[in-house]
Design a protein that fits this description.
- This protein is α+β, with helices and mostly antiparallel strands.
- It contains 18 helices and 11 strands.
- It is 59% helix and 12% strand.
Amino acid sequence: MITSPREFSWKDSTTWKVFLYCFIAFFFLAIAVTIIHSLSLYRNEINHFENDLLHIKELHIPVIVSSLWITDYEHLENQIEGIAQFNFIDRVEVHDEDQHLWVAGKDVQEFQEPVTYKLIYTYRDIEQDIGDIILYTNSEQIKSVIIDNAYSLFLIQLLLAFILSSIMAGSFYIVIGKNLIRIAQFIKTDHPGENSQPLTLQRNFKIKDELQMLIDYLNEMRHRIRIAVQEVKELSYTDQLTGLYNRRFFEEELKRLDTLRNLPLSLIMVDVNGLKLTNDAFGHEAGDQLLQKVAQVLKDECRTDDIISRIGGDEFVILLPKTDHLQVASLGDRLIEAIHKKKIRNLPVSASFGWETKKGDKEDINSVFKRAEDYMYSKKAYKKDDQRQQSLQIIIDTLFNKESRERDHARRVSETSVAIGSALGLSEAEIKELKVAGEYHDIGKIAIHSDTLNKRGPLTDSEWKEIKRHPELSYNILSSVNEYGPIAEIVFYHHERWDGKGYPSGLQGEEIPLQSRIIMVADAYDAMTDDRPYRKALSKEEAVKQLKKGTGSQFDPEIVEVFLKKVLSV
């Protein structure tokens, strides 16, 4: 979702973000350096402490043992005083075997950790325990040294981080930031019209850097936006299929032209006949061609200043300012004559027209529009069935001309269906419906490609899916003519199977209309006994055998029995 831009503040500044990101980076770098330094310092101090203990053990303790053995207590005290001066050693205690105590250093504290060594005097390979020496070490002092050192180092690094971040942010602002602010302000206030000036940088040198590239791209983008805005504006008022104006443009122009100076203001309503029938029979490409052909006639016959719009799927309207009733009637007659000369896939193009004129300023233009529309629909209703009947006959003729085999097949299916219906005792009206349904049962194949219909090898899944559409296509074509409504119903179900495994609806048994079941048997028998691209015709005996085999699964048993006994006499 697009939101309105906020007012600029220092928090939104890229310069501030550069400072912040740099400082954060330096901050974490300072933490890492401090940790590494502290670990190194800790390791050094521990090594130093361990070396002191080794030094005391190897140099001082032997002297203390000797002093204690010869009772040189003054020398003993000097030694322990010296040991107490070592870093991290707060107190030294020496105990002899008579429980005498010599002490140097501070008082004993809870945090001090004692390290005890036995004082062993060795004479002629004889060892004698003459006492103990206890060193009270201060580990807290090690921590304190490390913490103090780390704290000082971290503060120094933070100060450096602040200084470096400020320098980098200031440099960014001088070189880039202030120009970015100018670009943002320019974009906020810019309206890229035909006379708008290109954006330039405010700096005393010229260099093809990233910022200049941004400016160049921005100026190019503004140029493209100007073009795109104009194209979008045109597209928003244009019907993409016909190139005429669309309903939106028509409604705006109707308001604009509805003024006294444009009177008399006339309207012509145009409704293309048979668009759905054309789509069903020949596909939407043919329907599009029909609309385009009508649109071209309207453009050819109308004046340059007349406004022609497509306002619906098959509806057009022409706005004619300063055009009286006689002029609009003359134009309407010319349009009717020109359109009726056109054809699409051998189908005659036709359209219904209605026109009306606004003569007075107080007359409501919407009422004028409604009268023109009503007049058009009244003409359309009057001629609708005759036109569709004519179109239907052209479609079936086109199918038979395209697929000559289908003409004979339709005739035989019709004759066989009538014979079965008569044998079953159907009424005259039902037999008449059977005759027409048999003739038209495959009319939907007009919309199926000839390569699929005449393929010699097995059909692919997509080709089979296309073939299975023909009952529905036949229904759509036939149902467009009112008198063929019942016929369309029969044709729609003529590929349903008795066991419910047929198409398009999967009906079974007596759910399938009786006349559809009759055509199913007649169609199957004729298909088996006629040569097909994918196989030779079966003999009558073999076809009868196949019908019996399909009884109760594909075919109605009663109809098969009547067909075999009363029609084929087998």
